[in-house]
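**Archive record**
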Amino acid sequence: MEDYKLGPVESRFADFIWEGEPMTTKELVDLCAEELHWKRTTTYSILKKLCEKGFFKMENSVVTSLVSKDEYNAFQSEKFVEETFQGSLPALVLSFGSRKKLNKKEIEDLQKIIDSMKE
């Protein structure tokens, strides 16, 4: 997948698929008509675009994901840290912590994550 970025409308559309997969194209068209007031052609155009980007596939009128929502979110998070904090997770945590104090549970949860990542 060459372009991992989804716009707001594409993201909402992708959520429909992630939440309902596998789903038929008819189910997707009906859902988009109801929720987004889209015509069938609009749904197929967006679906084709996201299939070409490698997010989803359509076989025998059934739509499934090639990239899970968790995988997408992880990639976007990594990209944000890389672009904003030169890839430094500690810099992100320090920046976040300077504006919002963590409670004891949050600190314990972070410590567990750190401990699980040690080599």
